[in-house]
Amino acid sequence: MPGSSEQPRHHVIAIDGPSGSGKSSVSKAAASTFGFRYLDTGAMYRAVALWMSEHGVDVNDAEAVAANVENVVLASGTDPLNPGIFVDGRDVEAAIRTAEVTSAVSAVSAVPAVRTAMVARQRAEVEEAVAAGTGIVVEGRDIGTTVLPNADLKVFLTADQEARAARRAAQDEAEGRGGEVEATAESLAARDAADSSRKASPLTKADGAIEIDATFLSFPEVVAQVESLIRGVQ
Q1: Tens-digit pLDDT profile for residues 21-78
Q2: At 197, which CATH number?
């Protein structure tokens, strides 16, 4: 339970993995259990992509994106039960989940200047959590490799593409964004290729990361494994 005597203090937990692997849901659940803060770094990149699109910046023009990234007024909530993401003071949690943003985010997140700016913000959130005497679970695609290579625990959460597509399609359908598995699988394959091949902080398993293959595991089983790993951190 949050705030219980079993709660590890000050721990910094990095959870990486491809789209649809369940990182967000698992990270929020584990953070809530231990009373930790939670940071969704993917939402930050989506928020930048949204801002670029709304301000007429061509997301495929790396120089234009780089020139504008410092103009993005971004705030990330860290409550695992209600994290939120804000751009220019506006709650954009729903807006960043659209197909348009999803199709734009890989190009935006591949721009080195964007990654530099976001990594600085992400590390600042972690420093603030530790200074406040609490732990934090940070999830994304380059947390263990780039953002927090010295994290107390690094987890690489994955699943085969078919399982990830089915889960993401079900989530999209539940949230009113369609839900066709075949189309979702194609989108995930494209995202995997873009995230793994970009020059700036590509998606890869970090040294020392513990891999969890969630293909045949239920959500509670994955959460239980992650929480057991957190309890084992010294």
Answers
A1: 889 999 999 999 999 999 999 999 999 999 999 999 999 999 999 999 999 999 999 9
A2: 3.40.50.300
Looking at the structure of the chain, the number of domains it has is 1
State the angle between helix axes of 99-109 and 181-197 in degrees (0 to 180), rounded to the nearest 10.
10
> Average pLDDT over the chain, rounded to whole?
88
The partner residues of 157 in beta bridges, in order of sequence, read 212
> Which DSSP state fits 96?
G
Dig out the tokens for 188 from the structure: 């995930």
Asked whether residue 158 is domain-assigned, the answer is yes
Q: Are 8 and 34 in contact (CB under 8 A)?
A: yes
Tell me, yes or no, whether 4 lies in a domain. Answer: no
d(CA 135, CA 6): 13
Q: Which domain holds residue 79?
A: 12-231
